[in-house]
């Protein structure tokens, strides 16, 4: 009764007792924007079952309010996403406190709209069930964008009805172990001897993609599909060699890092438009990522079709060939009223505008410049490439290189002080990228993801890194949740 009395007193006086530094602030992750604790004792189990939902437009797009009262819990929200996030917060409170929840009031909403994780399923393939588990864990921590890297040189992972060879051929490769992954040559088997060789790969059927989109939508995660072009196209060119430049013997010349399709031929543009049409139908509400990174433009100078296009369109350099190729792809998607995203290299070619979001993986300064023109998502490699080592290489599983421990992730501040108001508004959010050269299992993906994803989410939810010591305490309190979900992580003490 002491609990009820103090609560009623606080309510009557309209001065909730705010206890900063209390444990409750560390229990829910990401930490809510505001927690007012009205009493220090738990309430009864009846209240946890007695849940009442109210629509309140003031909660905003993804925001919510929770009032845990002695007799009931009142959840206010404006949208289904807000309601879902309130439920996740309650789930975390119940996981920690059981049914004896502390009486409190939470007001919460994210600082950033785009709270993303990227997953490369081309270099290593993960099953539908594994992707669902990944999405479910994302949603538990209020991530809302899965950037699904479906096509790349080492494997094409999505069924395209018009081009069946993309998955019949492009989804499989010879499973070599002769050298470190990034230095092996990808060998996609052609011809009759395929069945005698050990193959690695897989792909998602269109029905499976629809199921993943539905599953993610239920959890307020948008799957953002990416189709790489005009580089990183080895698997596609193996399936359809006519995509390559004239004189390019794809099995020999179309190696990783040199795997640009021919942008001189109109058939190449048509191929990608056909593929994008199927993408657009499969992902009806998603922005579409059209790649555009790491193109070796000089390779086009040897091709008569590419040279002819340069002459026809009066282009001064081979770099401009990428610009005009991407311009046509973007024009097609704009006509379909689709949101479009591309890697920051296309901004260098002058293509970024208010309709194309620039995804910045190189220096953040490129993003701040692009944000003067249009939307930007920041995933700079210096802080947010989770394929890098998080400890000393000799004590870690093989990674791509670099060194991005938890502390380093938490140094990333997305909004510099001198940013203009326009640029600030155009920065949609941040994401971490998981390139899977060395991640052959989902357990390894999870190990690379956690705990670093907590640092990322704290920045995304609050707009800036805050207190590292508190973050560590919050992460410690989340480890039982990860264990209960059978989700792997790198131990904090390692
Ligand atoms: Zn060409």
Question: Strand sequence of the main sheet, in spatial order?
Answer: 12-7-6-17-16-15-14-13
Oligomer: single chain
> Would you identify the CATH H-level superfamily of the largest domain?
Glycosidases
What is the CATH architecture descriptor of the largest domain? Alpha-Beta Barrel
Determine Rg (CA atoms, Å).
Answer: 25 Å
Mean pLDDT: 91
Secondary structure tally, helices: 20
Small molecules in complex? zinc ion
Distance between the ends:
45 Å
CATH fold descriptor of the largest domain: TIM Barrel
Task: Summarize this structure briefly.
The chain has helices at residues 2-13, 24-27, 45-49, 80-97, 128-140, 165-168, 206-218, 234-239, 250-253, 266-282, 304-312, 319-335, 345-348, 364-370, 381-384, 406-409, 421-426, 442-449, 452-462, 468-484; strands at 34-42, 51-55, 64-68, 73-77, 102-108, 114-120, 145-149, 151-152, 155-156, 172-174, 199-201, 222-226, 288-289, 340-343, 356-360, 376-378, 427-434. It is α/β, with parallel strands linked by helices and 494 residues long.
């Amino acid at each position: 009764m002491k609990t009820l009395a103090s609560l009623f007193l606080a309510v009557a006086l309209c001065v909730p007792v705010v206890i900063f530094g209390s444990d409750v602030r560390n229990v829910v992750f990401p930490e809510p924007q505001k927690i007012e604790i009205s009493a220090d004792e738990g309430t009864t189990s009846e209240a946890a079952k007695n849940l009442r939902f109210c629509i309140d437009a003031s909660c905003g797009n993804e925001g919510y309010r929770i009032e845990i009262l002695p007799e009931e819990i009142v959840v206010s929200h404006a949208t289904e996403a807000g309601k879902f996030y309130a439920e996740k917060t309650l789930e975390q409170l119940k996981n920690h406190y059981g049914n004896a929840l502390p009486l409190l009031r939470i007001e919460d909403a994210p600082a950033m709209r785009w709270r993303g994780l990227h997953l490369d399923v081309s270099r290593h393939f993960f099953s539908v069930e594994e992707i669902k588990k990944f999405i479910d864990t994302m949603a538990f921590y209020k991530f809302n964008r899965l950037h699904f890297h479906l096509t790349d040189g080492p494997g094409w992972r999505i069924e395209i009805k018009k081009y069946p060879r993309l998955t019949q051929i492009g989804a499989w490769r010879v499973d070599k172990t002769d050298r470190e992954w990034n230095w092996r040559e990808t060998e996609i088997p052609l011809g009759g001897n395929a069945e005698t060789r050990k193959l690695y790969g897989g792909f998602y059927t269109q029905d499976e993609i629809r199921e993943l989109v539905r599953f993610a939508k239920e959890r307020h995660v948008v799957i953002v599909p990416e189709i790489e072009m005009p580089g990183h196209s080895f698997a596609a060119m193996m399936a359809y060699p006519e995509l390559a430049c004239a004189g390019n013997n794809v099995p020999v010349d179309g190696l990783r890092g040199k795997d640009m399709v021919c942008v001189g031929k109109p058939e190449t543009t048509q191929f990608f438009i056909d593929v994008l049409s199927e993408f657009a139908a499969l992902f009806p509400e998603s922005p579409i990522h059209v790649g555009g990174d790491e193109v070796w433009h000089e390779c086009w100078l040897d091709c008569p079709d590419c040279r002819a296009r340069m002459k026809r369109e009066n282009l001064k350099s081979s770099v401009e060939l990428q610009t005009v190729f991407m311009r046509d792809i973007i024009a097609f998607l704009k006509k379909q009223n689709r949101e479009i995203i591309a890697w920051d290299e296309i901004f260098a070619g002058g293509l970024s505008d208010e309709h194309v979001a620039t995804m910045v993986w190189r220096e953040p300064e490129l993003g701040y410049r692009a944000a003067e023109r249009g939307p930007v998502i920041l995933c700079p490699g210096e802080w947010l490439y989770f394929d890098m080592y998080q400890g000393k290489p000799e004590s870690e599983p093989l990674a791509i290189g670099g060194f991005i421990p938890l502390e380093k992730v938490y140094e990333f501040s997305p909004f510099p002080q001198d940013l203009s108001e326009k640029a600030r508004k155009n920065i949609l959010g941040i994401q971490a990228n998981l390139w899977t050269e060395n991640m052959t299992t989902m357990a390894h993906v999870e190990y690379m993801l956690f705990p670093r994803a907590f640092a990322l989410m704290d920045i995304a939810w609050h707009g800036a890194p805050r207190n590292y010591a508190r973050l560590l305490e919050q992460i410690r309190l989340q480890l039982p949740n990860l264990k209960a979900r059978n989700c792997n992580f790198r131990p904090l003490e390692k």
